[in-house]
Design a protein that fits this description.
heterodimer; A: mainly alpha; Rna Polymerase Sigma Factor, Chain: A; Arc Repressor Mutant, subunit A; 2 domains; B: mainly alpha; 3 domains; 0% strand
Chain lengths: 192, 210
């Protein structure tokens, strides 16, 4: 995966915004708002909090735009800001919040046992994810749920590529252990 | 049994996202066919990747750029006015200091006014007398024909002259007495006859010497 194109696009948009082009500002927000929201929702497990942090992320990025030295991509910079804001909230709430899939899964086919089992399995998996150490959890989210490369993760988390890979492997191993736990009998459901 | 093939495991998310090239995809599929641990890991990755994210709705996405823009502008404005207010805070004095400064200015102004402008007593001493004889003006004139004055005018002139001469007569006395204060009188009173005689002689000699 290459970042060259999108990075250049973002820098060009930032230059236009700096020159007073309001449309360039809107375009930058529109371009990054949905992927950032997905990441934030997965981190904080609450739609309102995710929307709130999303707005704060953009505001913080644009009010502090003079601090963006263009050594990394604008997207990486946005992710760093978003993750820091989400971390603060996540720390405040610790692990109290759990993901609720209810409506999304059950609405599709509320009567099937398969969906109920799937829902329970998923919930156990997300609980296991929430119990991971912060760096491992964040690395797993970025790699699996937001499709970031290890190089991008290293840039976002300000660590080496080797460290980001190590965090991923440790996280996935713990996740498997926590997810499978004492109830090994759910394997077939996971394999669906 | 736990698999330790990190190389394959690192590729699993990309495999799930169908981002691998043909060679890597083939390598992963071969491994998955033989490794139950990695197959379970892939299933778990799929479940995590599929985690549903509730959509806040199109209205939210449409409005967000505008909301962010307004907030950025507002914060920039606050930052600028905060900087100006901070500067003013450093320059401006608190209310009590302003009151003190105002009182000091008023005090200085009042003192200056009294220093520059004469006091009422000074005005009184330099002002001409309230009642000025009409003949004083006549004295300032080049000549006065006394024959032209009637009796009333002559009486007034007479009383004015008497008043002026009386004041002149008092002046030498004042000047004379001003040279001898009470302590001098006391000292003279303490002299005996012989001392007075000697003093008298000295004064005579002094007068003779001119």
């Amino acid at each position: 995966m290459t970042n060259g194109g999108p990075m250049d696009d973002d820098l060009a948009l930032l230059d236009r915004y700096a020159a007073g082009d309001r449309e360039a500002f809107d375009e930058l927000v529109r371009k990054h708002q949905k992927p950032l929201y997905s990441l934030l929702y997965r981190m904080v497990s609450n739609a309102d909090d995710a929307a709130d942090i999303l707005q704060k992320t953009f505001v913080k990025a644009f009010t502090g735009i003079s601090g963006f030295e263009r050594r990394s991509s604008f997207r990486t910079w946005l992710y760093q800001i978003a993750i820091n804001l989400a971390k603060n909230l996540y720390r405040d709430r610790s692990r109290a919040a759990q993901v609720s899939l209810d409506d999304v899964v059950i609405r599709k086919d509320p009567k099937t046992l398969e969906n109920i089992i799937r829902k329970e399995t998923r919930e156990r998996l997300y609980r296991a994810l929430a119990e991971l150490p912060e760096k491992q959890r964040l690395t797993v989210i970025l790699r699996i749920q937001t499709q970031k490369t290890f190089e991008e993760i290293a840039g976002i988390m300000k660590c080496s590529v080797g460290t980001s890979k190590a965090n991923y492997h440790h996280g996935v191993k713990k996740l498997k252990a926590l997810f499978e736990g004492p109830e090994q009998g759910n394997d077939h459901a996971v394999h669906e | 049994m736990q698999c330790t093939n990190n190389d394959i495991q690192e590729l699993l998310p990309a495999y799930e996202q169908q981002l691998l090239d043909r060679n890597d995809r083939s390598r992963v599929e071969k491994h998955l066919a033989a490794c139950e641990d990695c197959a379970r890991e892939l299933a778990m990755i799929r479940m995590l990747a599929d985690e549903p994210v509730p959509d806040p709705g199109e209205a939210f996405w449409t409005a967000l750029p505008g909301k962010v823009y307004r907030e950025v502008r507002e914060q920039d404005r606050q930052k600028r006015s905060g900087g100006l207010m901070g500067l003013l805070d450093r320059v401006l004095l608190p209310r009590w200091a302003w009151a003190g400064a105002a009182a000091a200015v008023l005090l200085v102004a009042a003192v200056s006014w009294f220093l520059v402008h004469p006091r009422p007593e000074e005005i009184a001493s330099t002002a001409p007398p309230d009642t000025v004889s009409p003949y004083e003006d006549m004295l300032d004139a080049e000549s006065v024909d006394m024959a032209e004055l009637d009796d009333t005018q002559l009486d007034s002139l007479d009383s004015w002259a008497a008043r002026e001469l009386a004041s002149l007569q008092e002046t030498p006395g004042d000047l004379f007495t001003s040279g001898f204060d009470a302590s001098t009188d006391d000292k003279l009173a303490e002299l005996n006859e012989q001392e007075l005689e000697d003093l008298s002689n000295h004064l005579d000699e002094y007068e003779e010497e001119g």
